[in-house]
Design brief:
Blueprint lengths: L1 H15 L4 H11 L1 H25 L12 H20 L4 H4 L3 H16 L3 H23 L11 H26 L8
Helix pairs in contact: 1-3, 1-7, 2-3, 4-6, 4-8, 6-7
């Protein structure tokens, strides 16, 4: 569990830097923008690797019994999360709904996994990243984030949905290989 906690501290800690613009400016100016971005990415990747190692070795400590309806609801949350994650990086009208599709995708991912998992390690992982994402949305809004005003054609949205669906299907089949547990029971 220590690796998981350390990974979460590193990943969330490095992502908190942009929430303090003077600190981010000082680091980017002192290191140079490219070096800052490189170090940011290195720390984020290190945190992610530590989280994966931590989750794979975390003991199962039950906290609550996941509800039976979670089996039905979690895949719906995950499909929406994948579409939001894709929509963060592809042009479409999702940015007209929110300036934060990536963060909302992480919130949906976290809630979906909290519904399906009732152990301490899952609570730490999904709870902390979901809460961080809500904080990031609030923080970005405070710093002036605005929704896009440009309307995209519907074909852009269909592409985002299609790629999100492909990513969802890939994750359903890769989940047992990557994380050691089936995303949908029976697969």
């Amino acid at each position: 569990m220590n690796w998981l906690l350390l990974g979460l501290a590193v990943l969330i800690g490095v992502h908190l830097i942009p929430a303090v613009p003077p600190l981010r400016r000082r680091l980017a100016t002192g290191l140079g923008e490219r070096a800052y971005t490189g170090l940011f990415s290195l720390f984020a990747l290190t945190g992610l690797v530590l989280i994966i190692l931590g989750m794979s070795h975390a003991p199962f400590i039950p906290v609550w019994q996941p509800p039976l309806w979670g089996v039905v609801l979690t895949p719906v949350f995950m499909l929406a999360a994948m579409i939001f994650l894709v929509g963060a990086y592809m042009p479409g009208n999702l940015h007209r709904l929110t300036p934060h599709p990536m963060s909302w995708g992480v919130v949906l991912w976290a809630v979906g996994h909290l519904i399906a998992n009732g152990d301490a390690a899952s609570l730490l992982l999904f709870g902390s990243l979901g809460l961080y994402s809500l904080f990031a949305i609030w923080s970005c809004n405070r710093r002036g984030a605005v929704r896009a005003t440009r309307t995209m054609t519907m074909d852009r949205d269909l592409i985002v949905i299609g790629v999100g669906l492909l990513l969802y299907v890939a994750m359903v089949f890769l989940h047992p290989i990557l994380f050691g547990v089936a995303a949908i029971s029976g697969l």
